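Technical note accompanying the year-one report. For the benefit of new consortium partners, we illustrate the data format agreed upon in the data management plan: each record pairs a sequence with a structure-token string. No post-processing was applied to the example shown here.
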Amino acid sequence: MAYYSICPKCQAHLDPNEICDCENKENSKQDIFSKLVGINPRTGQLFFQYDNKAEISKKVERR
């Protein structure tokens, strides 16, 4: 008989007394995504930010 618990947020199977780090993983994924992708305020379209966020967003807004 196996003893384990299941995380209510991500459904991961955890060992007894193990704490799930799903919230930490999700936050870091969201931070990475927000750094790589931007939204054009005029059109609402997503765009990739490669080098400098400011330069790319200015180029997109001019179009």
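Partners are asked to follow this layout when depositing records. The chain has a mean pLDDT of 78.
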